Amino acid sequence: RRMDMIIRSIVQDSIESIDGKNMYESVYYRDFDVNKLYFLMCRILKSSLNDSRVAEKFQITNTQGMASWFLSLNLENIADNSKNICLHLKNLGKDVNTKELKEIYKEVEKTYLDAMKAHYNSDRKLADTVAAAREQLFNKCDNFFEKHNSVDVFKVISNIKEMENQICNIARIVIDREEIKKDEK
User: Fold this and answer.
1) Is 115 exposed, middle or buried (0-12, 13-18, 19+ CB in 10 A)?
2) DSSP string of 63-78, one letter each residue
3) Do residues 145 and 114 make contact, with C-beta atoms less than 8 angstroms apart?
C-alpha cells in the first residue's frame, strides 16, 4: 500500500510536468523510496521461502509470495516509467499537443487506479475491464506518435505503453488470484 501511495503521487506530478512544471527531482526521490520498498519486499519474500517460520509469521504461502513479488515488481517498474516520462517531457518540442498527451496519460492513471482498486477489493470484473482497455490506449498512443513523430515523443509514448503493460499485469494478478480461489473450492 505504501508503494501504491507513493506511485499515485509520482504519476500525478509526472502529469503536471506535461504543463511545463519541472517535477523531475521530486519524482526521482520518491522513485528511490519505491525502489527501497521493492527491495524490502524481495528480502521478506525470499526469507519466507527459505524459512517457514518467517512465512508463518507473515502468513505467506508460496503462491501468495510469488503474486506479491510480481505485484511489487510491476509497481516498481510503473514508478520507473513514470519517472522516465517526467524526464523526457522536458525535451518535448513546442509543437506537441500537450492537451492530447495529458488526456492519454490521465487514462493510464485511471487504469492504474482501477487496477489497484481491483487488487484491494479482489474485483475480477474491474480487473478484466482494466486489461481490456490496453489495446485502445495503445492505439491512442500510436496515433499520437504518428502526429508528433520525434525521438522524445517516442520515449514518452514508449514509457506510457510500458506502464500500461505493467498495469495489465497487476490486473492479471487479480484475475489469476480469483481463478486460484475457484480451483481451491
Assistant:
1) buried
2) HHHHHHHHHHHHHHHH
3) no
Q: What is the pTM of this model?
A: 0.89
CB 125 within 8 A of CB 158: no
Q: Confidence band (pLDDT; 50, 70, 90) for 178?
A: low
Q: How far apart are CA 130 and CA 136, in angstroms?
A: 11
Q: How far apart are CA 64 and CA 3, in angstroms?
A: 18
Averaged pLDDT for residues 18-22: 82
Helix (H, G, I), strand (E, B) or coil at 51: coil
Q: How far apart (Å, rounded) are the C-alpha atoms in residues 156 and 101?
A: 9
Greatest distance between any 2 Cα atoms in the chain: 59
C-alpha cell belonging to residue 123: 474485483
